[in-house]
């Protein structure tokens, strides 16, 4: 290992037991490794990190990704207004209400219409339901 702290996440590339591996899945206390040929190996995380030959290849210590709250807080008024309009549109398509539910509906909002099934019966289905003559 290169230092006392390292980030072990899905996608981390490492050298272990003389081969190159990529972390496919973390399931405590084990890690699922995948090699370039598609081979899979399950190893205990403690054993993997304690093995003297293990080396993380993509740096190990990685910066945490910037949170979405930071990005949203940096929006100007016009961008924030556009975002709210788009969210309201998606909510209206999904639920029938711009705010997502009847309890939060805006004054004057029409009640949501129930969705009807618009599926048509195929010719085969109609023939199957027809009486045999």
Descriptive report:
The longest helix has 19 residues, at 77-95. This protein has helices at 45-50, 68-73, 77-95, 123-129, and strands at 13-16, 19-27, 30-34, 40-44, 55-56. The chain has 2 domains: 1-64, Roll (SH3 type barrels), CATH 2.30.30; 66-101. The protein has a 5-stranded antiparallel sheet with strand order 4-3-2-1-5. With 133 residues, it is of the alpha+beta class. The radius of gyration is 27 Å and the shape is flat. The mean pLDDT is 78. It contains 4 helices and 5 strands; from the N terminus they run E-E-E-E-H-E-H-H-H.
What is the element layout, followed by pairings?
Layout: E1 13-16, E2 19-27, E3 30-34, E4 40-44, H1 45-50, E5 55-56, H2 68-73, H3 77-95, H4 123-129
Antiparallel strand pairs: 1-2, 1-5, 2-3, 3-4
**Lateral arrangement of strands in the main beta sheet:** 4-3-2-1-5
Mean pLDDT, nearest integer?
78
Structural class, by secondary structure, is: alpha+beta
The Cα radius of gyration reads 27 Å
| Silhouette | flat
Largest beta-sheet details = 5 strands, antiparallel
- Percent of residues in helices comes to 25-40%
Number of domains: 2
> What is the succession of H and E elements?
EEEEHEHHH
Kindly report how far apart the N and C termini lie: 80 Å
CATH class division of the largest domain: Mainly Beta
Range of strand content:
15-25%
């Amino acid at each position: 290992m290169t230092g006392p702290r390292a980030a072990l996440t899905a996608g981390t590339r490492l050298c272990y037991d003389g081969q190159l591996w990529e972390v496919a899945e973390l399931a405590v206390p084990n890690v699922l490794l995948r090699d370039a040929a598609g081979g899979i190996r399950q190893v205990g995380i403690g054993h993997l990190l304690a093995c003297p030959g293990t080396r993380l290849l993509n740096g190990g210590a990685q910066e945490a990704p910037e949170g979405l709250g930071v990005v949203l807080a940096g929006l100007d008024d016009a961008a924030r207004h556009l975002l709210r309009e788009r969210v309201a549109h998606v909510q209206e398509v999904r639920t029938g209400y711009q705010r997502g539910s009847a309890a939060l509906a805006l004054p004057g909002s029409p009640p949501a219409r129930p969705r009807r099934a618009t599926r048509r019966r195929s010719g085969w289905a109609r023939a199957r339901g027809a009486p045999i003559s």
